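Q: Second attempt. The first request was missing the SMILES, so the protein and zinc ion are both included now.
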Amino acid sequence: MSATLPPSDGPLHAWRAGLLWFPDPGVPQARHESDGLLVTRRDADGVVRIADVGAFAEVAERWPGVPVTHWPHLCIAPGFVDLHVHYPQTDVIASPAEGLLPWLEHYTFPHEKQFADPVHARETADFFLDELLRNGVTTALCFATAHPESVDAFMQAAQARQLRMVAGKVLQDRHSPDGLRDADTRLSLRQTEDLIRRWHGVERLGYAITPRFAPTSSSEQLHGAGEIAAQFPDVWIQSHLAENLDEIRWVHELFPQARSYLDVYDRAGLLRERAVYAHCIHLEDADRRRMAETGSVAAVSPTSNLFLGSGFFDYAAADRTGLRYGLASDVGGGTSFSPLHTMHAAYTVARQNVGRPGLSLAPGHLWWQHTAGGAQALGLAGTVGNLLPGCEADFIALDPRATPLLARRTAQAETLAEWLFALIVLGDDRLIAHTVVQGQSNLVQNARPQNATIGA
Ligand SMILES: [Zn+2]
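A: Got both inputs this time. The predicted holo structure:
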Protein backbone atom coordinates (compact mmCIF):
# COMPACT_ATOMS: atom_id res chain seq x y z
CA MET A 1 0.00 0.00 0.00
CA SER A 2 1.09 3.53 -0.67
CA ALA A 3 2.20 5.56 2.35
CA THR A 4 0.20 8.55 1.05
CA LEU A 5 -3.17 6.92 1.68
CA PRO A 6 -5.36 8.53 4.37
CA PRO A 7 -5.83 6.32 7.46
CA SER A 8 -9.58 5.68 6.91
CA ASP A 9 -8.95 3.74 3.69
CA GLY A 10 -10.38 0.26 3.46
CA PRO A 11 -9.65 -2.55 1.07
CA LEU A 12 -8.39 -1.55 -2.34
CA HIS A 13 -8.69 -3.30 -5.68
CA ALA A 14 -7.55 -2.32 -9.15
CA TRP A 15 -8.88 -3.23 -12.59
CA ARG A 16 -6.64 -3.12 -15.66
CA ALA A 17 -8.40 -2.93 -19.04
CA GLY A 18 -9.39 -0.39 -21.66
CA LEU A 19 -11.30 2.49 -20.08
CA LEU A 20 -14.12 4.71 -21.29
CA TRP A 21 -15.42 7.63 -19.19
CA PHE A 22 -16.44 11.29 -19.17
CA PRO A 23 -13.69 13.52 -17.66
CA ASP A 24 -16.16 16.43 -17.47
CA PRO A 25 -19.45 14.78 -16.45
CA GLY A 26 -21.51 17.69 -17.82
CA VAL A 27 -20.00 17.42 -21.29
CA PRO A 28 -20.88 14.53 -23.62
CA GLN A 29 -17.24 14.02 -24.62
CA ALA A 30 -15.93 10.52 -23.89
CA ARG A 31 -12.28 9.73 -23.16
CA HIS A 32 -10.79 6.36 -24.00
CA GLU A 33 -7.63 4.78 -22.65
CA SER A 34 -6.56 1.56 -24.38
CA ASP A 35 -4.50 0.32 -21.39
CA GLY A 36 -6.07 1.88 -18.33
CA LEU A 37 -6.25 1.29 -14.59
CA LEU A 38 -9.27 1.81 -12.36
CA VAL A 39 -8.68 1.69 -8.59
CA THR A 40 -11.59 1.10 -6.20
CA ARG A 41 -11.74 1.43 -2.45
CA ARG A 42 -14.31 0.53 0.21
CA ASP A 43 -14.89 3.73 2.18
CA ALA A 44 -15.68 4.04 5.89
CA ASP A 45 -19.43 4.14 5.11
CA GLY A 46 -19.16 0.70 3.48
CA VAL A 47 -19.67 1.99 -0.06
CA VAL A 48 -17.09 1.01 -2.70
CA ARG A 49 -16.01 4.07 -4.69
CA ILE A 50 -13.55 4.83 -7.44
CA ALA A 51 -10.25 6.10 -6.06
CA ASP A 52 -8.27 6.66 -9.24
CA VAL A 53 -8.62 6.35 -13.01
CA GLY A 54 -6.36 6.86 -16.02
CA ALA A 55 -3.57 5.36 -18.10
CA PHE A 56 -2.07 2.24 -16.50
CA ALA A 57 1.47 3.63 -16.77
CA GLU A 58 0.51 6.72 -14.76
CA VAL A 59 -1.97 5.34 -12.24
CA ALA A 60 -0.19 2.06 -11.35
CA GLU A 61 2.78 3.79 -9.76
CA ARG A 62 0.49 5.56 -7.29
CA TRP A 63 -0.91 2.23 -5.99
CA PRO A 64 1.94 -0.26 -5.44
CA GLY A 65 0.95 -3.64 -4.06
CA VAL A 66 -2.78 -3.33 -4.80
CA PRO A 67 -4.32 -6.53 -6.20
CA VAL A 68 -5.35 -6.14 -9.82
CA THR A 69 -7.85 -7.92 -12.06
CA HIS A 70 -6.59 -7.82 -15.64
CA TRP A 71 -8.99 -7.94 -18.59
CA PRO A 72 -6.62 -7.45 -21.54
CA HIS A 73 -9.22 -7.38 -24.33
CA LEU A 74 -12.08 -5.69 -22.54
CA CYS A 75 -13.03 -2.06 -21.99
CA ILE A 76 -14.36 -0.87 -18.63
CA ALA A 77 -17.13 1.74 -18.86
CA PRO A 78 -19.62 3.23 -16.39
CA GLY A 79 -22.69 1.12 -15.56
CA PHE A 80 -25.70 2.34 -17.51
CA VAL A 81 -28.43 4.47 -15.93
CA ASP A 82 -32.00 3.72 -17.08
CA LEU A 83 -34.16 6.78 -16.40
CA HIS A 84 -37.55 5.14 -16.81
CA VAL A 85 -38.60 1.50 -16.62
CA HIS A 86 -41.49 -0.55 -15.19
CA TYR A 87 -40.37 -3.73 -13.45
CA PRO A 88 -43.94 -5.14 -13.29
CA GLN A 89 -44.06 -4.95 -17.09
CA THR A 90 -41.24 -7.46 -17.51
CA ASP A 91 -43.78 -9.97 -18.85
CA VAL A 92 -45.54 -7.34 -20.99
CA ILE A 93 -42.48 -6.76 -23.21
CA ALA A 94 -43.12 -7.77 -26.83
CA SER A 95 -46.94 -7.51 -26.63
CA PRO A 96 -48.53 -6.05 -29.79
CA ALA A 97 -51.22 -3.33 -29.56
CA GLU A 98 -52.93 -0.48 -31.38
CA GLY A 99 -51.06 2.28 -29.57
CA LEU A 100 -50.70 3.35 -25.95
CA LEU A 101 -54.24 3.29 -24.54
CA PRO A 102 -55.28 -0.15 -25.92
CA TRP A 103 -51.88 -1.51 -24.88
CA LEU A 104 -52.44 -0.36 -21.30
CA GLU A 105 -55.92 -1.87 -21.21
CA HIS A 106 -55.15 -5.25 -22.84
CA TYR A 107 -51.74 -6.11 -21.46
CA THR A 108 -50.37 -3.76 -18.85
CA PHE A 109 -53.23 -3.38 -16.40
CA PRO A 110 -54.02 -7.14 -16.21
CA HIS A 111 -50.34 -7.95 -15.59
CA GLU A 112 -49.91 -5.25 -12.99
CA LYS A 113 -52.88 -6.56 -10.97
CA GLN A 114 -50.84 -9.64 -10.12
CA PHE A 115 -48.44 -7.54 -8.03
CA ALA A 116 -50.79 -7.55 -5.06
CA ASP A 117 -49.11 -10.94 -4.47
CA PRO A 118 -45.73 -10.32 -2.79
CA VAL A 119 -44.35 -13.68 -3.94
CA HIS A 120 -45.07 -12.88 -7.58
CA ALA A 121 -43.68 -9.36 -7.08
CA ARG A 122 -40.42 -10.64 -5.59
CA GLU A 123 -39.92 -13.31 -8.24
CA THR A 124 -40.43 -10.73 -11.00
CA ALA A 125 -38.19 -8.16 -9.27
CA ASP A 126 -35.40 -10.75 -8.99
CA PHE A 127 -35.67 -11.65 -12.67
CA PHE A 128 -35.91 -7.98 -13.70
CA LEU A 129 -32.82 -6.90 -11.74
CA ASP A 130 -30.77 -9.83 -13.04
CA GLU A 131 -31.83 -8.88 -16.55
CA LEU A 132 -30.78 -5.26 -15.98
CA LEU A 133 -27.38 -6.45 -14.74
CA ARG A 134 -26.94 -8.80 -17.70
CA ASN A 135 -27.44 -5.73 -19.88
CA GLY A 136 -25.03 -3.56 -17.90
CA VAL A 137 -27.66 -1.37 -16.21
CA THR A 138 -26.66 -0.67 -12.60
CA THR A 139 -29.07 2.15 -11.67
CA ALA A 140 -32.69 2.65 -12.71
CA LEU A 141 -35.64 4.88 -11.89
CA CYS A 142 -38.40 2.35 -11.74
CA PHE A 143 -42.19 2.17 -11.51
CA ALA A 144 -43.68 -0.49 -9.23
CA THR A 145 -47.49 -0.92 -9.22
CA ALA A 146 -50.29 0.55 -7.13
CA HIS A 147 -49.67 -2.12 -4.47
CA PRO A 148 -47.26 -1.10 -1.67
CA GLU A 149 -46.12 -4.76 -1.54
CA SER A 150 -44.69 -4.31 -5.05
CA VAL A 151 -42.34 -1.60 -3.73
CA ASP A 152 -41.23 -3.68 -0.75
CA ALA A 153 -40.47 -6.63 -3.03
CA PHE A 154 -38.44 -4.50 -5.43
CA MET A 155 -36.48 -2.72 -2.70
CA GLN A 156 -35.66 -6.01 -0.96
CA ALA A 157 -34.44 -7.51 -4.24
CA ALA A 158 -32.32 -4.40 -4.99
CA GLN A 159 -30.92 -4.41 -1.44
CA ALA A 160 -29.91 -8.06 -1.76
CA ARG A 161 -27.84 -7.07 -4.81
CA GLN A 162 -26.42 -3.88 -3.15
CA LEU A 163 -27.81 -1.79 -6.00
CA ARG A 164 -28.48 1.92 -6.29
CA MET A 165 -32.12 1.89 -7.38
CA VAL A 166 -35.02 4.32 -7.14
CA ALA A 167 -38.66 3.17 -7.24
CA GLY A 168 -42.14 4.08 -6.11
CA LYS A 169 -45.72 2.92 -5.65
CA VAL A 170 -47.92 4.00 -8.54
CA LEU A 171 -50.67 6.48 -7.65
CA GLN A 172 -53.81 5.95 -9.73
CA ASP A 173 -57.22 6.61 -8.20
CA ARG A 174 -59.39 6.83 -11.32
CA HIS A 175 -59.81 5.49 -14.87
CA SER A 176 -58.14 2.28 -13.79
CA PRO A 177 -59.55 -1.23 -13.33
CA ASP A 178 -60.50 -2.75 -10.00
CA GLY A 179 -57.50 -4.34 -8.35
CA LEU A 180 -55.21 -1.60 -9.61
CA ARG A 181 -57.11 1.55 -8.70
CA ASP A 182 -56.43 3.30 -5.40
CA ALA A 183 -59.90 2.94 -3.88
CA ASP A 184 -59.05 5.46 -1.16
CA THR A 185 -57.05 8.51 -2.26
CA ARG A 186 -55.97 9.53 1.23
CA LEU A 187 -54.81 5.98 1.97
CA SER A 188 -52.73 5.97 -1.26
CA LEU A 189 -50.97 9.14 -0.12
CA ARG A 190 -50.39 7.73 3.36
CA GLN A 191 -48.93 4.57 1.81
CA THR A 192 -46.57 6.76 -0.21
CA GLU A 193 -45.36 8.54 2.91
CA ASP A 194 -44.91 5.23 4.75
CA LEU A 195 -42.85 3.83 1.88
CA ILE A 196 -40.66 6.94 1.78
CA ARG A 197 -39.92 6.52 5.48
CA ARG A 198 -39.29 2.80 5.05
CA TRP A 199 -37.00 2.92 2.02
CA HIS A 200 -35.71 6.35 1.02
CA GLY A 201 -32.02 6.64 1.88
CA VAL A 202 -31.75 3.05 3.14
CA GLU A 203 -28.32 1.95 1.90
CA ARG A 204 -28.32 3.02 -1.77
CA LEU A 205 -32.09 2.95 -2.27
CA GLY A 206 -34.26 5.94 -3.10
CA TYR A 207 -37.99 6.57 -3.34
CA ALA A 208 -39.91 8.22 -6.17
CA ILE A 209 -43.40 9.69 -5.80
CA THR A 210 -45.11 8.05 -8.76
CA PRO A 211 -48.40 9.31 -10.21
CA ARG A 212 -48.92 7.02 -13.22
CA PHE A 213 -49.96 9.94 -15.46
CA ALA A 214 -52.45 12.79 -15.23
CA PRO A 215 -55.51 10.90 -16.62
CA THR A 216 -55.42 8.20 -13.93
CA SER A 217 -55.12 10.52 -10.93
CA SER A 218 -57.74 12.85 -9.49
CA SER A 219 -56.76 16.43 -8.90
CA GLU A 220 -56.83 15.63 -5.17
CA GLN A 221 -54.31 12.80 -5.61
CA LEU A 222 -51.97 14.91 -7.76
CA HIS A 223 -52.04 17.79 -5.28
CA GLY A 224 -51.53 15.37 -2.40
CA ALA A 225 -48.48 13.99 -4.21
CA GLY A 226 -47.18 17.54 -4.60
CA GLU A 227 -47.61 18.16 -0.88
CA ILE A 228 -45.63 15.03 -0.05
CA ALA A 229 -42.94 16.16 -2.50
CA ALA A 230 -42.69 19.49 -0.67
CA GLN A 231 -42.30 17.64 2.61
CA PHE A 232 -39.50 15.38 1.27
CA PRO A 233 -37.34 17.60 -0.95
CA ASP A 234 -34.77 14.93 -1.84
CA VAL A 235 -37.13 12.16 -2.99
CA TRP A 236 -37.69 11.72 -6.71
CA ILE A 237 -40.89 12.30 -8.69
CA GLN A 238 -41.64 10.23 -11.78
CA SER A 239 -44.52 10.17 -14.23
CA HIS A 240 -45.37 10.24 -17.94
CA LEU A 241 -45.89 13.35 -20.07
CA ALA A 242 -47.05 14.09 -23.61
CA GLU A 243 -46.42 10.65 -25.05
CA ASN A 244 -49.38 10.33 -27.38
CA LEU A 245 -51.92 12.64 -29.07
CA ASP A 246 -55.01 10.73 -27.83
CA GLU A 247 -53.64 10.90 -24.30
CA ILE A 248 -53.10 14.67 -24.62
CA ARG A 249 -56.69 15.23 -25.84
CA TRP A 250 -57.90 13.23 -22.85
CA VAL A 251 -55.85 15.36 -20.44
CA HIS A 252 -57.36 18.54 -21.93
CA GLU A 253 -60.87 17.15 -21.36
CA LEU A 254 -60.10 16.12 -17.79
CA PHE A 255 -58.26 19.29 -16.79
CA PRO A 256 -59.85 22.10 -18.86
CA GLN A 257 -58.46 24.77 -16.56
CA ALA A 258 -54.83 23.75 -17.22
CA ARG A 259 -52.86 25.64 -19.88
CA SER A 260 -51.20 22.42 -21.06
CA TYR A 261 -50.57 18.82 -20.07
CA LEU A 262 -47.41 19.92 -18.25
CA ASP A 263 -49.38 22.61 -16.44
CA VAL A 264 -51.45 19.89 -14.70
CA TYR A 265 -48.28 18.67 -12.97
CA ASP A 266 -47.03 22.23 -12.44
CA ARG A 267 -50.23 23.28 -10.62
CA ALA A 268 -49.90 20.21 -8.38
CA GLY A 269 -46.33 21.13 -7.34
CA LEU A 270 -44.76 18.22 -9.21
CA LEU A 271 -42.09 20.09 -11.20
CA ARG A 272 -38.66 20.44 -9.59
CA GLU A 273 -35.17 18.96 -9.47
CA ARG A 274 -35.36 15.15 -9.39
CA ALA A 275 -38.71 15.17 -11.25
CA VAL A 276 -38.35 12.84 -14.25
CA TYR A 277 -41.03 12.73 -16.96
CA ALA A 278 -41.02 9.94 -19.50
CA HIS A 279 -41.45 10.75 -23.22
CA CYS A 280 -41.98 14.56 -23.45
CA ILE A 281 -42.66 14.24 -27.17
CA HIS A 282 -45.57 16.55 -28.00
CA LEU A 283 -44.56 19.66 -26.07
CA GLU A 284 -44.44 23.33 -26.88
CA ASP A 285 -41.29 25.32 -26.19
CA ALA A 286 -43.05 27.15 -23.34
CA ASP A 287 -43.43 23.76 -21.59
CA ARG A 288 -39.85 22.75 -22.33
CA ARG A 289 -38.67 26.05 -20.85
CA ARG A 290 -40.85 25.58 -17.80
CA MET A 291 -39.33 22.14 -17.26
CA ALA A 292 -35.82 23.58 -17.64
CA GLU A 293 -36.60 26.43 -15.26
CA THR A 294 -37.88 24.06 -12.55
CA GLY A 295 -35.08 21.50 -13.03
CA SER A 296 -37.49 18.81 -14.28
CA VAL A 297 -36.05 16.43 -16.87
CA ALA A 298 -37.13 14.18 -19.73
CA ALA A 299 -36.59 10.41 -19.87
CA VAL A 300 -36.27 9.79 -23.60
CA SER A 301 -37.68 6.35 -24.42
CA PRO A 302 -37.09 5.78 -28.13
CA THR A 303 -37.72 2.01 -28.47
CA SER A 304 -41.07 2.48 -26.72
CA ASN A 305 -41.97 5.51 -28.83
CA LEU A 306 -41.18 3.68 -32.07
CA PHE A 307 -42.97 0.50 -30.93
CA LEU A 308 -46.19 2.24 -29.85
CA GLY A 309 -46.00 4.76 -32.71
CA SER A 310 -46.13 7.61 -30.20
CA GLY A 311 -43.80 10.07 -31.93
CA PHE A 312 -40.24 11.37 -31.98
CA PHE A 313 -38.41 13.21 -29.20
CA ASP A 314 -37.11 16.57 -30.45
CA TYR A 315 -33.48 16.84 -29.37
CA ALA A 316 -32.89 20.21 -31.03
CA ALA A 317 -35.89 21.74 -29.25
CA ALA A 318 -34.72 20.31 -25.93
CA ASP A 319 -31.24 21.75 -26.42
CA ARG A 320 -32.47 25.18 -27.51
CA THR A 321 -34.79 25.48 -24.48
CA GLY A 322 -32.36 24.01 -21.93
CA LEU A 323 -34.51 20.94 -21.20
CA ARG A 324 -32.22 18.25 -19.79
CA TYR A 325 -32.71 14.59 -20.66
CA GLY A 326 -31.32 11.08 -20.50
CA LEU A 327 -32.16 7.72 -22.02
CA ALA A 328 -34.62 5.10 -20.84
CA SER A 329 -35.78 1.65 -21.90
CA ASP A 330 -39.42 2.10 -20.77
CA VAL A 331 -39.86 -1.68 -20.68
CA GLY A 332 -42.58 -3.03 -21.21
CA GLY A 333 -43.58 -0.37 -23.81
CA GLY A 334 -39.90 -0.39 -24.70
CA THR A 335 -38.74 -3.41 -26.67
CA SER A 336 -35.34 -4.05 -25.10
CA PHE A 337 -33.50 -4.02 -21.79
CA SER A 338 -30.28 -3.32 -23.70
CA PRO A 339 -28.95 0.25 -23.50
CA LEU A 340 -27.20 -0.47 -26.81
CA HIS A 341 -30.59 -0.96 -28.48
CA THR A 342 -31.94 2.18 -26.78
CA MET A 343 -28.98 4.28 -27.97
CA HIS A 344 -29.40 2.91 -31.48
CA ALA A 345 -33.11 3.79 -31.42
CA ALA A 346 -32.32 7.28 -30.10
CA TYR A 347 -30.02 7.81 -33.07
CA THR A 348 -32.76 6.63 -35.43
CA VAL A 349 -35.38 8.90 -33.79
CA ALA A 350 -33.12 11.96 -34.00
CA ARG A 351 -32.38 11.27 -37.70
CA GLN A 352 -36.02 11.49 -38.83
CA ASN A 353 -37.35 14.51 -40.69
CA VAL A 354 -40.69 14.88 -38.91
CA GLY A 355 -41.72 18.51 -38.94
CA ARG A 356 -38.14 19.36 -37.99
CA PRO A 357 -34.82 18.52 -39.64
CA GLY A 358 -33.15 15.24 -38.75
CA LEU A 359 -29.81 15.34 -36.97
CA SER A 360 -27.03 12.84 -36.27
CA LEU A 361 -26.32 12.45 -32.57
CA ALA A 362 -22.64 11.76 -31.93
CA PRO A 363 -21.93 8.28 -30.51
CA GLY A 364 -20.26 9.79 -27.43
CA HIS A 365 -23.36 11.89 -26.86
CA LEU A 366 -25.64 8.82 -27.07
CA TRP A 367 -23.41 6.99 -24.59
CA TRP A 368 -23.38 10.02 -22.27
CA GLN A 369 -27.21 10.16 -22.25
CA HIS A 370 -27.26 6.62 -20.83
CA THR A 371 -24.43 7.14 -18.27
CA ALA A 372 -23.07 10.47 -16.96
CA GLY A 373 -25.86 12.51 -18.60
CA GLY A 374 -28.56 10.21 -17.24
CA ALA A 375 -27.01 10.42 -13.78
CA GLN A 376 -26.95 14.22 -14.02
CA ALA A 377 -30.62 14.28 -15.05
CA LEU A 378 -31.37 12.11 -12.02
CA GLY A 379 -29.50 14.44 -9.68
CA LEU A 380 -26.79 11.79 -9.18
CA ALA A 381 -23.87 13.35 -11.05
CA GLY A 382 -20.65 12.37 -9.32
CA THR A 383 -22.41 9.41 -7.68
CA VAL A 384 -23.11 7.00 -10.56
CA GLY A 385 -22.75 6.93 -14.35
CA ASN A 386 -19.05 7.76 -14.54
CA LEU A 387 -15.60 6.53 -13.52
CA LEU A 388 -14.32 9.70 -11.90
CA PRO A 389 -12.81 9.43 -8.40
CA GLY A 390 -15.60 9.60 -5.82
CA CYS A 391 -18.16 7.86 -8.05
CA GLU A 392 -19.62 4.63 -6.72
CA ALA A 393 -17.90 1.59 -8.20
CA ASP A 394 -20.66 0.23 -10.45
CA PHE A 395 -19.21 -0.48 -13.88
CA ILE A 396 -19.20 -2.85 -16.82
CA ALA A 397 -16.60 -4.51 -19.00
CA LEU A 398 -17.36 -4.43 -22.72
CA ASP A 399 -16.10 -7.13 -25.06
CA PRO A 400 -15.78 -5.56 -28.51
CA ARG A 401 -15.07 -9.04 -29.89
CA ALA A 402 -18.28 -10.52 -28.49
CA THR A 403 -19.57 -11.52 -31.94
CA PRO A 404 -17.73 -12.16 -35.21
CA LEU A 405 -19.28 -9.09 -36.81
CA LEU A 406 -18.48 -6.84 -33.83
CA ALA A 407 -14.88 -8.10 -33.82
CA ARG A 408 -14.52 -7.49 -37.55
CA ARG A 409 -16.15 -4.05 -37.58
CA THR A 410 -14.53 -2.65 -34.40
CA ALA A 411 -11.10 -3.80 -35.60
CA GLN A 412 -11.51 -1.43 -38.56
CA ALA A 413 -12.66 1.60 -36.57
CA GLU A 414 -10.27 4.51 -37.03
CA THR A 415 -11.67 6.85 -34.41
CA LEU A 416 -13.29 6.52 -30.98
CA ALA A 417 -16.57 7.75 -32.49
CA GLU A 418 -16.53 5.01 -35.14
CA TRP A 419 -15.70 2.37 -32.53
CA LEU A 420 -18.50 3.50 -30.21
CA PHE A 421 -20.98 3.69 -33.04
CA ALA A 422 -20.19 0.09 -34.06
CA LEU A 423 -20.80 -1.02 -30.45
CA ILE A 424 -24.11 0.87 -30.35
CA VAL A 425 -25.45 -0.41 -33.67
CA LEU A 426 -24.15 -3.98 -33.51
CA GLY A 427 -24.09 -4.57 -29.76
CA ASP A 428 -26.54 -6.27 -27.41
CA ASP A 429 -26.30 -8.13 -24.09
CA ARG A 430 -23.40 -10.21 -25.49
CA LEU A 431 -21.26 -7.07 -25.47
CA ILE A 432 -21.46 -6.91 -21.65
CA ALA A 433 -18.77 -9.33 -20.46
CA HIS A 434 -19.02 -8.32 -16.78
CA THR A 435 -21.20 -6.12 -14.64
CA VAL A 436 -19.41 -5.08 -11.45
CA VAL A 437 -21.52 -3.68 -8.61
CA GLN A 438 -19.69 -2.43 -5.53
CA GLY A 439 -16.55 -4.27 -6.50
CA GLN A 440 -18.39 -7.58 -6.97
CA SER A 441 -18.69 -9.05 -10.43
CA ASN A 442 -22.34 -10.06 -10.69
CA LEU A 443 -21.88 -11.57 -14.07
CA VAL A 444 -19.20 -13.55 -15.81
CA GLN A 445 -20.45 -14.26 -19.24
CA ASN A 446 -17.74 -14.76 -21.78
CA ALA A 447 -14.43 -13.53 -20.41
CA ARG A 448 -12.12 -14.66 -17.62
CA PRO A 449 -9.95 -12.20 -15.67
CA GLN A 450 -6.22 -12.65 -15.14
CA ASN A 451 -5.41 -11.85 -11.53
CA ALA A 452 -2.15 -10.28 -10.42
CA THR A 453 -0.76 -7.54 -8.18
CA ILE A 454 0.46 -4.11 -9.27
CA GLY A 455 4.23 -4.17 -9.41
CA ALA A 456 4.32 -7.99 -9.28
ZN1 LIG B 1 -43.50 4.24 -18.86
